[in-house]
């Protein structure tokens, strides 16, 4: 959710009871409802990241137009949300029990980012369809209501609209039959009865030095390095408001292991990046991990879990 809107909702909603469902291993699942497509009986090995005890990196995809010079390292999302489709292996159909798991070659964490299509009149129906189609592949689901360029999307950030949307998405998830490990957790910027929060991916403001750039007047959600301080301060505030009781994903301006470490110390149990990956490529990830390990050793932490929220205590 864009920072300007998130800040307004924090104190209004977070003081209400936030219920976090237990987070266990990956899921076996099938459909109970006859109106929904069949879900393969399948599972992925390994534990979910959102236990708070294990940490990793998520590469968040999207449609972005970059605006960069030597002083400004950022991306500005101009295009808005686009429609997508589920890909399966060439030898199987979406209903086949051997459906390909999102093209994954091995173990790891896969978050599914749910959003509305640009031209949809019933936004919630798009999110529900996303749950029906993709939740069996997900370690967690994200209810994305943050794009400033998708018509009508940010109207879903209103308190009533967001609560109604969350209820429909939860109902779609819960109508499916899951194994004893339970369904994938749901995450959104601010809402009741969710399993985690994402803090916070873009801003429609133009902080220094972006405000001095000729492109600063262009529309779009700003991400990247200029967002780092704003998003980290909000992450820290949210960690203190929730008292560390629910997982927080920290994002916004991460481009180094030191950046990831600061997010973790501010309360993140998971960090997410996109802009730096667009410029640094796949080699950025092992570098961030190595730098993060150095930060932990330097400050005497035996694990990442020990560092979560260290700057908020």
TrEMBL record:
Stated EC number for the protein is 1.3.5.2
Q: In which pathway does it act?
A: Pyrimidine metabolism; UMP biosynthesis via de novo pathway; orotate from (S)-dihydroorotate (quinone route): step 1/1
Return one Gene Ontology term, BP aspect. Answer: 'de novo' UMP biosynthetic process
Coiled-coil annotated residue ranges, if any: none
MF terms per GO, please?
Answer: dihydroorotate dehydrogenase (quinone) activity
EC primary class: oxidoreductase
Q: What is this protein called?
A: Dihydroorotate dehydrogenase (quinone), mitochondrial
Instruction: List, separated by semicolons, the cofactors it needs.
Output: FMN
Region annotation Disordered: residue ranges?
83-108
Residue intervals of the Dihydroorotate dehydrogenase catalytic domain: 109-296
Q: Which family does it belong to?
A: Belongs to the dihydroorotate dehydrogenase family. Type 2 subfamily.
Q: Which UniProt keywords apply?
A: Flavoprotein, FMN, Membrane, Oxidoreductase
Pfam families referenced in this protein's UniProt entry, alphabetically: DHO_dh (PF01180)
Cite a GO CC annotation: mitochondrial inner membrane
């Amino acid at each position: 959710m864009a920072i300007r809107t998130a800040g307004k909702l924090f104190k209004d909603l977070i003081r209400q009871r936030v219920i976090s469902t237990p987070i266990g291993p990956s899921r076996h699942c099938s459909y109970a409802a006859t109106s929904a497509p069949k879900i393969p009986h399948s599972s992925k090995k390994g534990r979910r990241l959102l236990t708070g005890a294990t940490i990793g990196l998520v590469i968040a995809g999207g449609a972005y137009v970059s605006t960069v010079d030597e002083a400004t390292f950022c991306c500005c999302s101009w295009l808005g949300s686009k429609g997508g489709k589920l890909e399966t292996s060439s030898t199987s159909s979406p209903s086949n029990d051997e459906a390909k798991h999102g093209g994954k070659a091995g173990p790891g964490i896969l978050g599914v980012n749910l959003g509305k299509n640009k031209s949809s009149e019933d936004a919630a129906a798009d999110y529900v369809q996303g749950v029906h189609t993709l939740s069996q592949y997900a370690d967690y689901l994200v209810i994305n209501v943050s794009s400033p360029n998708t018509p009508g999307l940010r109207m879903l950030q209103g308190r009533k609209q967001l609560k109604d949307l969350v209820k429909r998405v939860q109902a779609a998830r819960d109508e499916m039959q899951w194994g004893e490990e339970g369904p994938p957790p749901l995450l959104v910027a601010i809402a009741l009865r969710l399993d985690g929060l994402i803090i916070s991916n873009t801003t429609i403001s133009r902080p220094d030095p972006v405000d001095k750039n000729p492109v600063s007047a262009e529309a779009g959600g700003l991400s990247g390095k200029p967002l780092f301080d704003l998003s980290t301060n909000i992450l820290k505030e949210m960690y203190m408001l929730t008292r560390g009781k629910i997982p927080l994903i920290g994002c916004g301006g991460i481009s180094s292991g030191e950046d990831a470490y600061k997010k973790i110390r501010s309360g993140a149990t998971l960090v997410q990046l996109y802009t730096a990956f667009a410029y640094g490529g796949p080699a950025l990830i092992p570098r961030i991990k190595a730098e993060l390990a150095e930060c932990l050793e330097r400050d005497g932490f035996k694990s990442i879990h020990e560092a979560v929220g260290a700057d908020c205590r």
